[in-house]
Amino acid sequence: MASIKLILRTYQQDQAGHCPLYIRVIKDRKAKFISVGLKLKESEWDEAKQRVKKNHPNSARMNASIAQKIADAEGQVADLERKVKTVSANKLKDAIKGKQVPNFFEYSRRHCEKIKGSVSISTYKNYMLYLDKFENWVGTKEVYFDDVTVSLLIDYMAFMSNTLKNGATTQRYSIMILAIMFKQAIKEDIIPEYMYPFSKLNLKKDTAERMFLKKEQIEALIEYKAEEGSLNCIYRDMFIFAIYAGGLRFSDVLEIQNKQFNEEELRIKKMIRKTGRWHQFKIGQVALHIIKKYQKPNPKPDDFIFPIVTNGNLFLKNDEYRFEITQSKNKSANFQIQKIAKALELPVHVSFHLSRHSFATNALNNGMRIEHVSKLMDHRDIRTTQIYAKILGEELDKAVDDFIY
């Protein structure tokens, strides 16, 4: 025999002190929770009498509504238990809801496994990471699509902001992952469109300032005396190479092979890891000097130019291994480059990705056409490249202001 009770989830208290009220169904020692759609302060709920206290202005109306929901739930449970000898708590929850609404986490993780081979490893891992994050906050795997309401999402965003100290961009991304799962479920006709709660949310981005290194700062990095063969030296050289090789991302610099470099034409041709598109461009003397520095005598075509990846065959064949190694080496590179930046007293926080920003801003500053910069950076949309032109405009405005005033 299943038992039914009302539970006020005090651990999900929002900023105003309100907690969501749930119907708890226990069957065979397994508990399932169904949202009542009401939120109360702890002082407004009588746990023993299972009623809203009279100190709430709408207590009579709310108690009548709650009593009706409990009666309906008990009726659904009694009917199902009479018809079916063995019935799970999960089936009872479905019966109380009155419809077969899929479990959000079960559907979402199943979808992630289906698309695992068609998206990048980083995309797959991010999907799973942010689903885990949401599940940890909710505190249960038993969340159905119609449990994910606007109110629940607003509470989740407040938790991310106040407790986790997540910025607006992280909050936005965390919510967008959930929205992607909803959209896919709607596309597959798993749930109706009216269950989509995200259109009512106001998602913002942090206004991040894009930093870059100026010419004299790049030259200071080049002149920095690093011990030859050390990680400090190798990662510095890779960083400088990226600046003078079209702003290549760390993952692409890491895996440049000898066969991808045409010495006669001074040209690199490789598939860009992030976009999956073939990309080719000519390099200048600074980048060429760095390649020559690391090329071994009689180099094998498949060997990597930079001596960072130790197991090249596994790196190229196993996506999971490549992702883990790239993540690990990127962190190491950022650590080493920042050490040099501190020694040189550079006024910005330096990570490897700063080489990409530095290439774009310096190329535009030296008169390269924005269309060419966009092509070299493999941007899909020139509007992305225009961000760097805006940075230069702001730098120019500041220079004029400093000169005039």
Q: How does this structure look, described?
A:
- The chain is mainly alpha-helical and 405 residues long.
- It has 15 helices and eight strands.
- It folds into three domains: 3-97, no CATH class; 104-200, DNA polymerase, domain 1 (Orthogonal Bundle), CATH 1.10.150; 215-404, Intergrase catalytic core (hpI Integrase, Chain A).
- It has helices at 59-83, 89-97, 104-115, 121-138, 150-162, 168-187, 215-223, 231-243, 250-254, 285-294, 312-317, 319-343, 354-365, 370-376, 382-404, and strands at residues 3-8, 18-27, 30-41, 45-46, 51-52, 261-262, 267-271, 278-282.
- A three-stranded antiparallel sheet has the order 1-2-3, covered by helices on one side. The chain has a three-stranded antiparallel sheet with strand order 6-7-8, with no helix packed on it.
- A hairpin with a 4-residue loop joins strand 4 (45-46) and strand 5 (51-52).
Short characterization:
The chain is 51% helix and 11% strand. By secondary structure, it is mainly α.
